């Protein structure tokens, strides 16, 4: 009106410069975000993402009716491609009508039979779950004196010193090493576990000495290598 335009021309220009420009800017962003969501979505059933999207979109006729209403409103905006929007609206309305007819013809699903409740069943709790240690060690019965304070065992103190030294060097404290005996192991056997998985094992001989050959020894000592 300010530039000598008619009411219809002014409304058309205003619509193109506001709604049209907004749609041009938002539709690519919507497509990109939808594509990113499809890529990173994890499917929990045997169907792929495409089959699930088709099933969710076309399983309920109300979804098609809502989409048809939105496209119909856009098709009535001056300056928009009215014919294209109205054609899509008619197609969605026809699809919604077909889905509703198929839904009415579908046989009713039988109601599930309710089983009598058994009040004697005790539900599982977290107390029934054995939590695994982050870092653990199992020893045979012959190695128990090495980890028992009452028997002058020094292993726990040395592990504590190693954790302290590691924290000073690396800047974080490693998890506590939980030590327990395991009667299923060989008497002098030990194994190291991480989250319940064995990552190392070996044999130790308490009461014996470790002899290291510096390279200049003339003879050998009886023992195990």
From TrEMBL:
Coiled coil: none annotated. The keyword Transmembrane applies. One of its GO terms (cellular component) is plasma membrane. InterPro entries: FHIPEP_1 (IPR042194), T3SS_FHIPEP (IPR001712). Keywords: Cell projection, Cilium, Flagellum, Membrane, Transmembrane, Transmembrane helix. Pfam families: FHIPEP (PF00771). GO terms for biological process: bacterial-type flagellum assembly; protein secretion. The chain crosses the membrane at residues 23-45, 57-77. It comes from the Bacteria. This is Flagellar biosynthesis protein FlhA. The lineage of its organism: Bacteria, Pseudomonadati, Pseudomonadota, Gammaproteobacteria, Enterobacterales.
